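Quick log. Single chain, no ligands specified.
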Amino acid sequence: MIAAAVLLVAQSAAATQASYQITTLKQEQARLSAEHDQLRAQLAADRAANRVATAAVQLGLSHPGRWQYVHATGSPIALGPRSASPGRPGVWDGVLAVLGAVTGRPLNSQPAH
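-> predicted structure:
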């Protein structure tokens, strides 16, 4: 009877320890999964930036390492002014805003007065 009680206590202790190990492993898995997601997002952002830089260099712009960036700006188009010419598609103004942001010189689609 004492042997059965000792065996029951030992099994209970082993089950409790296994439960703690499972909880620890699940927490570690969640942490690693979050880190993996963050790294994938960073890789995607880096690849996108590299594609933009490569395309800009192919267009004859200076080396991307010499560009100035505005921290936390999601898009260079956001830096450009809104289209001041009614009836004209904003795409051209957006392209000029991007090129102006990349070159550091504002470009204007309006003729000089």
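The mean pLDDT is 75.
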